[in-house]
Structures are given as C-alpha cells and as structure tokens.
Model the fold of this input.
Amino acid sequence: MLVGSKIDLEEDQREVPREHGIDVAEKNSMASFGEISSKTGQNVNKTFEVLTELTLERTQNR
Done:
C-alpha cells in the first residue's frame, strides 16, 4: 500500500498529484493507494485499518 499525505491541501498546492500516486501504486503492483492528513487526521484510522486487513490477508494466504 502506498500512502500519500497532505490531503488537507488543495490539489494545486500538492507536490505530487493524487493521480500520480495511483499510477505509482499500480505500476509497482501495490495493493492500494490512500491519502491521509496528519494535520486533520483525515483517513488516518481508515488507512491503518486497510493496512491491517492487507497484512492479515497476506499472512493467512501463506
């Protein structure tokens, strides 16, 4: 999973556009791409939930 930060900024203020993050995650066969804000806390809990689910899925499939 690839995680980008600064989701609280406007799109034109970000150094890396969301679409680029999605492309990088796909090109590197990552399970997903998510964005968070450490300033507001947006999507932080959800991102950890997804990471936990992905980890559990991979360990159970071994």
Remarks:
- The CA atoms of residues 4 and 35 lie 5 Å apart.
- The first strand starts at residue 2 and ends at 4.
- The longest helix spans residues 44-60.
- Residues 2-60 form one domain.
